[in-house]
Specification:
The chain has an 8-stranded mixed β-sheet, with helices on both faces. By secondary structure, the protein is of the alpha/beta class. Helix 4 links the parallel strand 5 and strand 6. Helices cover 47% and strands 14% of the residues.
Amino acid sequence: MKRSTTMALGAGILAGSALALLEQRKRRRRNSLRIQSQEGIDLEEYVFLGGIEQYLYHRGENRSNPVVLFLHSGPGRPGRALLERFQTGWEHRVTVVHWDQRGTGRTYRHSPNPLWEANLERMVEDCDEVISYLKRKYHTDRIILLGHGWGSLLAAAYLKRYPKGVEAYIGVGQLLSPRDQEYQRFSQTMEAALEADNGRDIARLRAAEPYPGSFGHFQKQAGRVHRIEKRYQRPTSAGVCPLDSPFYTLTDWLCTLRPGARKVKQGLLEELYSFHLEALGTTYQVPFFLIHGQEDAHSPCEDARVFLEQVQAPLRDFYPIAGAGHQPMLDRPENFRCALFSILDQLDELRETPEDEED
């Protein structure tokens, strides 16, 4: 056997052993984190929604608590991957349901047929089917929609189609206009590179102009621009590898890299590229809250605050989190938890207020 073959075989065995040890450690951690309360729920399931089997993961210490449906970012990045780092402190107040959306994670593993392509209209209907299912399952209308990143656009589109479909909305890292916000990110990165007098980064950024440009040009250049951008950002915990998560497997991660998964979402990505949230209107019929990292490079905090000032809703509030980026629940989990509990307290008070007093 050639030496190179032997070395490759040895490296493969070591990698396999390391992965086996990692999975064993993750299983132990998962078992230690299982919900123990008799009134609670810790359930993974597939439910037939929108013509395909879709994956849901429920966690909470009391089924009678309000239900939070977590709409993950991406498209294609399940929020459950790092829930250990932010969610367990919520679970005595709410039941959290993570949904791997069409073309994502375990839903894609279970239903990989590329004919089931995603678009915003289809995703809104999927979301409505999930919410209707949760209302039946928990015998309650107290469903709170929490949208992060792309999930915040999906949630807003859902609320326009179904104005009173949920009890309240919480936007995290609320996106407004992906194309415009990409331009802002590029401009800020170029400004930082010029200030640092980094000729290499300046040249690479100029080679990407006009940015973001057309959707095709954006897809080709975004990876380069975002890699340069990271050099000038304050580090956050959001970059922690999900492979260490007891709620996420290597197979889950590999699903995000499959060409089929990207193909399913291609039309959705192009549709979102030119999306403008304000074009939907700023009137909402349910309480509307935003929790936003003050260091968010994807969606500037001030833009989100200005947008919320235009929103007309039964109740609204803004929670900026200092030192946090686009994933404030990871960057500042305790601050995020306090913001979430403040929102829950406001909703409790609103439920107890007679309707004639609200008027």
